[in-house]
Specification:
- With 398 residues, the chain is α/β, with parallel strands linked by helices.
- It has two domains: 5-190 and 378-397, Glycogen Phosphorylase B (Rossmann fold), CATH 3.40.50.2000; 202-376, Rossmann fold, CATH 3.40.50.
- It has helices at 21-31, 83-91, 127-131, 146-156, 168-177, 202-215, 237-247, 263-272, 287-296, 311-318, 331-334, 348-360, 367-374, 379-397, and strands at 5-9, 38-45, 55-59, 62-71, 100-103, 118-123, 162-165, 185-187, 223-228, 252-257, 279-283, 299-301, 323-325, 340-342.
- An eight-stranded mixed beta sheet has the order 3-4-2-1-5-6-7-8. A six-stranded parallel beta sheet has the order 11-10-9-12-13-14, with helices on both faces.
- The longest helix is centred in the last third of the chain and has 19 residues, at 379-397.
Length: 398
Amino acid sequence: MKKPILTIFYQFNPWNSSIGGIQTVICSFLKYAPKEFEVRLVGTGNSPQGLGEWQEKEFSGQLIQFMPLFYLPNDDIRGLIPTTIKYTAALWRKYFTSDFLHFHRLEPTLATWKLQGEKTLFLHNDIRQQMAAQTGKKAILWQYLPMGYFALERLLIPQFEQILSCNTKTTHFYQKKYPQIAHKITNIKNAVDGEIFYPLTSEEKEQQRKQLTQKLNLSPTTQFLLFAGRLHPQKDPLLLIRSLQALNDPNVHLLIAGDGELIPQVTAEIAQCHLSKQVTLLGCLTPDQLAALHRVASAFVLTSVYEGLPLVVLEALSCGTPVITTPCGETVNVLTANTGVVCAERTPEAIADSWRKVLSHPDNYPASACIRTAHPYQAQTVIIDIYEQMWRRWQKSD
């Protein structure tokens, strides 16, 4: 029986511990693909072998077709030449027969303009904040040439049948900017994998928290704050460290899960702030390892400059952990009064005040409320619903 083919384009390897919400979304599309679909991923390789060739591989119990375009040992650290440029160049003169084509960055579609099939673009960030001068010129290279980006966007946007955004402001921005295709631009829920990110009972949480304090040689009463993400200007990890200094509470320990280009600056900032005994750098973790930390943390914290809807926020909530975030992205619309706090400002003092609020009154942020907030974003529902819509469209066109 003929199957519809979905080809996903993104510059990563799902068998590596790679940081990022885009990677997590794609992994959910691979894991929860119905048997009626043939799913393919055009990504990058973790070895120099087999480049540019289709390989049948297993991911989370699913057989998929995978083509690594070039060797990329670590996609968490930017090189001199941006990975997106390398990926786009590697796509030239390659043809992928597909019924559906999913893109998570705009630039690669420059090389796939002539490909046939229903094309969908996923928007993961608030593009206006992303391009704003106050985010700092190191966040993305397009900040040096914003007019060039938007000119490229105007050229490429018409090829898409769907444009799906996880950020309400971004959706409205693009609907207004491109009124002729406004009906194609809609919101989409990000998807958290409930098979990995789930809560413990209060007794289990306390037991595992104490086990972690013993492992790290900390006081048994230590409270943990957790950050997870790429150490990149967007996430502003230096502000994270300065906020811990402003908190000035020796009984609070910050866990940082992630890697990236700012690791030297983060390490230096920790030393300068005399916080080496209050911060643990964990590097890249697997989803299971990260979920275990979510379940024992008193709160998950973000100090980002801009965001879409960070999947790590949904992962924390799904584990019953409240979230404290700077005022950016869709998170401000997701959190309720009893599931977290949106900081008044992006300053160490304001962030530290928000941390104190949650740490001092944990009963005001019950796990049940966090779990309830995350429930509509379960991947088993969100991803399967997208596939069902694709299936219906395919049947009509076949």
